[in-house]
Design brief:
Blueprint (H helix, E strand, L loop, with lengths): L3 H7 L14 E6 L5 E6 L5 E6 L4 E5 L9 E5 L6 E6 L6 E6 L3 E6 L4 E7 L4 E6 L5 E6 L3 E6 L4 E7 L4 E6 L5 E6 L3 E6 L5 E6 L5 E6 L5 E6 L4 E5 L4 E6 L8 E4 L5 E5 L4 E6 L5 E6 L4 E6 L6 E5 L11 E7 L3
Length: about 325
């Protein structure tokens, strides 16, 4: 809609107005020998980690405004696929990886060395840090949750659930813990007691992924019903749904100021929507189903990775970052 609103948008200081997305570019990084399962930015937004089926993680120095070649460091040691990874929210050089080899490892991104590891009871597929950096939560294929004390790097709690547990998350203060389930619900637990507080009937099919708005107002849930629901954190009520995707939603992420949400699936685009209006403001085309999307915590740069194949039908092992001003 052209008109007065447009000129108003352009005069807003420092805030990215939606039309800018159309002029931004994507860069591709040849990262791994097999497909990339997970991408994550560190807390300063200067490094990106990628985890792959090729049993390695890599750490990339990516300059938001520069165009120097990205340097990378390989993290070797896992004996199976690196399914998910996350950075210490308080330490820009500490990275945790979860693997199908049953171990969780903590890495120093300066040296590429594994500083801590612990073996758990199953194939690990989900991992997240508590916002204060003291605990790590890990979910495995057997629907078991383990909480790890980061200082001692030993399990604090273990709990097996009788239903399918998918992605897990803490709220920004670390007092609430969320589980998305195969029953279409979100289980909200108090932390650290892990006592059940709410069961939110969120979707008509399994809930696959969850993201917490960095401002702390909302959380979003992506489901097998191809919808993304947005929830008010204080009221625990659904405020809107995003309906652009047609396939099960695999991955979602809020940008740094909570203004935009990216969501992706087997659709051949990533949807970027305005959180307040629910309207799509940009779509990034992609060639395959996406496994991971994550916004940078400081800039409007979106990292994404999926099931890309090359012309010989083997995994490309790439990830991409959208949001650069030059190609």
């Amino acid at each position: 809609m052209a008109g007065a609103g447009d000129s108003q948008l352009q005069t807003l200081p420092e805030r990215d107005s939606a039309p800018n997305f159309k002029n931004l570019h994507t860069r591709e990084y040849a990262a791994h020998k097999k497909k990339v399962h997970s991408v994550a930015w560190n807390c300063t937004g200067t490094k990106l980690a990628s985890g792959s089926v090729d049993q390695t993680a890599r750490v990339w120095n990516i300059e938001p405004h520069g165009h120097s070649k990205a340097k990378d460091l390989e993290l070797k040691g896992h004996a199976d696929s690196v399914d998910q990874l996350c950075w210490d929210p308080k330490h820009a050089e500490l990275l945790a990886t979860a693997s199908g080899d049953r171990t969780v490892r903590l890495w120093d991104a300066r040296s590429g060395k594994c500083s801590q590891q612990v073996e758990l009871s199953g194939e690990n597929i989900n991992i997240t840090f508590k916002p204060d950096g003291t605990h790590i939560a890990v979910g495995n294929r057997d629907d078991e949750l383990t909480i790890i004390d980061v200082r001692k790097f030993k399990p604090l709690h273990k709990r097996k659930f009788s239903y399918e547990v998918n992605e897990i998350a803490w709220n920004t203060t670390g007092e609430l813990f969320f589980l998305t389930t195969g029953n279409g619900t979100v289980e909200v637990l108090s932390y650290p007691s892990l006592q059940a507080l709410h069961t939110l009937v969120a979707h008509t099919a399994g809930c696959y992924c969850i993201a917490i708005d960095p401002i702390g107002r909302y959380f979003a849930v992506g489901s097998a019903d191809a919808l993304v629901s947005l929830w008010d954190l204080s009221e625990m009520l659904c405020v809107r749904t995003f309906t652009k995707l047609e396939w099960p939603v695999r991955t979602i992420s809020f940008n740094h100021d909570g203004q935009y949400i990216a969501s992706a699936s087997e659709d051949l685009f990533i949807d970027i929507a305005d959180v307040q209006t629910g309207r799509t403001i940009h779509q990034i085309s992609c060639r395959a189903a996406m496994n991971s999307v994550e916004w940078n915590p400081k800039y409007n740069l979106l990292a994404f990775a999926g099931d890309d194949k090359n012309k010989y039908l083997t995994d490309e092992g790439v990830f991409r970052v959208f949001g650069f001003e030059t190609p």
